[in-house]
Amino acid sequence: IMHQQGGYPAVTAWNSPQTWEYFDWCKNNLGGSGQPAWGNYNDGFAATRLATFWTYPPTYSYDDPYPTVQPAHSPIPADGASGVSISQGLSWASGAYATSHNVYFGTTSQNLSLIDNRAVNTYSPTLAYSTTYYWRIDELGDGEQEIVGTQWSFTTQDEPPPPRPKSILIRIGGQQ
To answer: 22-27 long-range CB contacts below 8 Å, 24 or more apart?
Structure first.
């Protein structure tokens, strides 16, 4: 979306074809050196003397119409955790620009199975006691982007011991 500001174009939407026209206009009329007039357009904010130009998201580039999908992070349970409850679900922080998540899960690090493609950032597997699990989240974004995530692991708690029998008081012949 473009509008006029002081007689010069200003862009209010980064992902439009008009944005590239504005970039070219600035490059040709203000920068002259092949660089945009405001310098580094990947720094998250940029301004010219004539108009303010917000370059958000900062991972856009002139050649790439889609932002770069970032990997998932902050897994729960934490990577390498031990003593994890068998009722624990998995969750993670979505990577920037991810539109869905491929969940991989298994008990061997070399053979993870694709469980599901999910729009939410949680998964509740059935877990067994004293087992090490491996998991990974691959983030998917616009433009068929897929970012392979980091493999994480955790180990579940040991099976609790059976309950101790209760003490029984037996009287024989009236004596304790």
So the answer is: 22/53, 23/62, 26/53
Two structure tokens written together for 163: 């309950």
* Single-letter amino acid, residue 173: G
Residue 22 has pLDDT above 50, yes or no: no
Q: Which of 94, 74, 75, 71 is nearest to 147 (CA)?
A: 71
Helices (H), the chain: 17-26
Residue 152 C-beta-side C-alpha neighbours within 13 Å? 23
Task: Determine the pLDDT at residue 176.
Answer: 53
Q: How far apart, in whole angstroms, are the C-alpha atoms of residue 3 and residue 25?
A: 14
Q: Give residue-wise pLDDT tens across range 96-131.
A: 999 999 999 999 999 999 999 999 999 999 999 999
Q: Is 3 helix (H, G, I), strand (E, B) or coil?
A: strand
**15, 29, 78, 142 from 71: Cα distances, Å:** 21, 38, 16, 14
Instruction: Name, in order, each residue with C-beta under 8 angstroms of 2's C-beta and a sequence gap of 6 or more.
Output: 9, 10, 11, 12, 16, 18, 21, 22
